[in-house]
Design a protein that fits this description.
The chain has 261 residues and is of the alpha+beta class. Helix content is 50%, strand content 19%. The chain contains nine helices and nine strands. α1 packs across α3, α2 crosses α3 and α5 packs antiparallel against α9. The relative contact order is 0.10.
């Protein structure tokens, strides 16, 4: 029994170290060298190298030149499987295409991931190009995005305070809501009108409006957003289309969750 327990502990330690390594590699846009991995994880160099090569053999990492590593293609395979299996994406696909056709604007679909918003799908407008379409799997601070603020407005005061404490509302641009007072005023405004906006708060020159997608229990599960380089909130018809589109996705999601008769 004692031997089994020791074996279990060692297995958990190995998994924990492997995840730490993957987190460091995933955080960088460029390949990461082994010295930095050792420094940031605190794992002994020889142990780190063994794990790096094991993860490489399994396809989770790829070894590049100059003793550097980047994420392997296995993550792309897993990511595509997860994305295809997400019920909200299935429910949203047709509505997102319809929103693009009616507005000629880029449409993003996002979900909460810890303290960030993660983009899980998009339909981008050729006129504006990929610039306004967030890469699938990309993340951004919730307080800097229209979709993220929709999740923040649903939080209890205690959870919102904890989020602010963890993130310090770090700004991305000079327009970001970097104080508690500004964020709370904005969240109150969102509650009143039912949709959110991002006015160059994540990136200069990019503005968004977002509406919530809810599950069968009325809980927010995702957000659908329209993206532009102009103040699209000045076009009430776009806001109306977005809110109605989010309601359609919510209805489809709720319907899919019902047990078959």
């Amino acid at each position: 029994m004692a031997a089994d327990k020791d074996s279990d502990i060692k297995t958990v330690q190995v998994l924990d170290r492997a995840v730490k390594i993957l987190d460091v590699v995933a955080a960088g846009s460029d390949p990461v060298n082994s010295n930095r991995i050792v420094q940031e994880t605190g794992i002994h160099a020889s142990t780190a190298h063994r794990l790096l090569w094991s993860l490489t053999e399994l396809g989770f990492l790829e070894h590049t030149t100059e003793n550097c590593w980047r994420l392997g293609l296995r993550f792309l395979e897993y990511g595509n499987r997860v994305r295809r299996a997400l019920p909200v994406r299935t429910a949203a696909v047709d509505v997102m295409r319809s929103l693009y056709e009616k507005t000629q604007l880029t449409v993003n679909l996002s979900m909460r991931s810890a303290d960030s918003i993660m983009y899980i799908d998009h339909v981008y407008a050729p006129k504006t190009g990929v610039r306004f379409s967030r890469q699938v799997g990309a993340v951004a601070p919730m307080h800097c995005t229209s979709g993220g603020k929709l999740f923040l407005r649903e939080m209890t005061p205690e959870d919102l305070s904890a989020y602010i404490e963890r993130t310090h509302l770090a700004p991305r641009t000079s327009h970001s809501l970097a104080t508690r007072e500004k964020l709370i005023i904005e969240l109150d405004r969102i509650r009143e009108r039912g949709w959110a906006e991002d006015n160059e708060e994540l990136e200069y020159g990019i503005r968004c409006i977002g509406a919530p997608i809810r599950d069968e229990n009325g809980r927010i599960t995702a957000a659908v957003t329209l993206v532009s380089d102009t103040e699209i909130k000045r076009k009430p018809e776009f806001v109306d289309l977005l809110v109605k589109g989010a309601a359609q996705i919510s209805a489809a999601l709720a319907s899919a969750a019902q047990p078959a008769a």
